[in-house]
Amino acid sequence: MHIKKKYFIIIISLYFIILNTLANDFEKSPEKKKTQIGKYNNAKNPNIVVILTDDQGYADISFNPNHPNEVATPHMDALAREGVFFTNAYTSGAVCSPTRAGLMLGQYQQRIGIYTAGDGGRGFNPKTKIFPSFLPDGFNSTAIGKWHLGLDSDYPKLSMHALNRGFDECYKFMGRGGHDYFKLIGVKGEDYEPIYRNKERIKENNYNGYLTTRLTEEAVSFIDRQKQNPFFLYLAYNAVHAPAQAPKKDIEQMQKNFPHLDKKRAILMAMLHHLDLGVGAVVNKLKTQGLWENTLLFFLTDNGGSKAMMANNGKLRGFKGSLYEGGIRSPFIVSWPAKFKGGRTINDPVISLDILPTVIEATNTGRLAKRNFDGKSLLPLLNGKSTNHHPVLFWNSGEEKSEWAVREGNWKAHSLRGKLQLFDLTNDPSEKNNIANKKPALAKRLAGLHSDWHAKMQLSEVKLTGSKPNLKNTSTKLNARELKRKQKREERKEARLKSKQAK
After folding, report:
1. Which of 106, 274, 482, 503 has its CA 20 to 30 A from that of 334?
2. Domain extent for 255
3. What is the C-alpha to C-alpha distance for residues 412 and 405, in angstroms, rounded to an integer?
4. What span, in angstroms and rounded, lies between the C-alpha atoms of 87 and 56?
5. For residues 304 and 324, what is the distance between their CA atoms, to the nearest angstrom?
6. Does 87 map to a domain?
7. What tens digit of pLDDT does each residue of 42-58 get?
8. Chain-wide mean pLDDT for the chain?
């Protein structure tokens, strides 16, 4: 009996040893390891989603109480209601490419010499680290849609390509502002604005569908493939940028519902409809996959609405390309249900440069100190722990135009062609009343702040790009070209006056 008991103990011991060995082997298997890592990262790090629309007007979202009657964006509205809506949110540029560069850098794009769409379209040093390079190991990232940070003229090398800038995969077109919505290889054939899946050019020409929908499908597919691991989805729609194209039935329906609309405005609304559906599909996929609570999502547009496309910026002055509020103010929504309460609005000034520092803090990478970021993490502001997020914000659209702006608190200084203006944004958000003559000292001080900032940007450009220093600050002066233009304007004005008097 004693011997049988001894053998029984030995057998049981061997049984547990075998089980333990199998369990360890299972833990070490690649599949199991991946799952474990995925679960761990999802618990510690949020998924990151940036939805960037193109040329969407500030009032072309029905969450804005001043939106026109024809505007209906229920999915964007739902996102705004569930998240936090920033009423004083800005982009770092007044046109597409500079804003995209600033967003990827977390810095004023002027630090690397990008002021205009042309500057950004040509790209910048491929060795410069951008957004995905600051994410922790284990993140999968994709860039979908409009890139506009370098052309594909060096094909097949594609030095400016997203896959050479830290992204794991992509479905996008490289440079220039717009893209045909029905022909995937572009409007002038294979060598003009091809769409790339990773580094392979899409061969399909006539697409029985709509590009906005295709980009949404790609985003949803990416989320489906990333269930177990944290991810970064950069979804940069080209809608509602020109060309003015939408499915015929949607345009006709819009014209039927709103007979007074100009045809181009009706097309824009049809484009906006598909854009809104895309936002809804992405949010819905995150929710159905159980990823919504731990997803840090940003929604914004790249600049103000386009006048040429008949966008509506509400009460804001100016349009895309201008440094008045209508050119740089953006609908801006942030959501992360697991970490902060939604259903709020925040009035503090924020800027698109804040997105990357926010992500860095959210993912606890500890790399914030390794770059001189101009943006700041929004998390203290979102959690009610910040009262002075950005004391001062700056803009400069290039020396040729000599247009710049500074916002300090509720004061905004603006200069165009050497004319210095001052606005009180609290009482005059439409920037109708120039009070520079009433407060000359304040206007001069803000101009000085911009001069100092601009010189700093130029020094940074020298350091980062190796270009020759150009420290002549022409931002508050008229250069020769602008003087000539001003003279011609004055001559035309005088001629019109004489003609009127003669009549």
Report:
1. 274
2. 47-390
3. 7
4. 15
5. 9
6. yes
7. 457 999 999 999 999 99
8. 85
